[in-house]
Amino acid sequence: MQDYNKLEITMKKRIFITATNTDIGKTYTTKRLLQEFASRGFRVGVIKPVETGVVNGIYLDGDELLKFVQELNKEFNDVKVEDIVPISYELPAAPFVSSDAKDFDFKKVDAKVKKLEQKCDILIFEGAGGLLVPVDKDNMIVDLIHHYKASALLVTHCSLGCINDTLLSKKVLSDLSIKHTIAFNCKEEDISFNDVSKPYFDKTGFEVLKVSDEIDKICDVLYNL
To answer: Active-site residues: which are they?
Structure first.
């Protein structure tokens, strides 16, 4: 493992967490990454540019992320949930639908990114849903990755169908020349993974990095992208 504590940071590092679909484990993975990078001496930060399903001021992801990052980086103690979730909508749907097809407010998010990066060395972006979730009529989540010049971590699942889902999302990232790596978020019920899906990845030279077991290696890869 590389000794990051001896590295001098010359620029801010941006990592965008995306997934093959919704409810795959982006928030869980984001928290694991924040914790691992913080343990290496980095000041960590997090932003979720847009969250839907925000009702009565309750941000299911944003509140959890803010509380977690404040425990790791005291410079975030004066940060509010509206800072790490600049855009929110009530309807739990794609932002394009939830916003009634409004244009995505890049300037609003840009301002929050600038503010948060003054408090951290590594800023982790958490997406919404999968790569092709529309945020407005012209942009999808993958366009946010490109806009913010971030490297990407694609979180995929370990249940039946993960080969197809993983390869489709990887192709989207590769076609846009976005630097990325892939992490598998295996759950207790994914007992068939080793027999029905992992053999494909093993035999095609596709490294299987599991969020639960190899977060340190995932961080190594992401830092060097």
So the answer is: 48
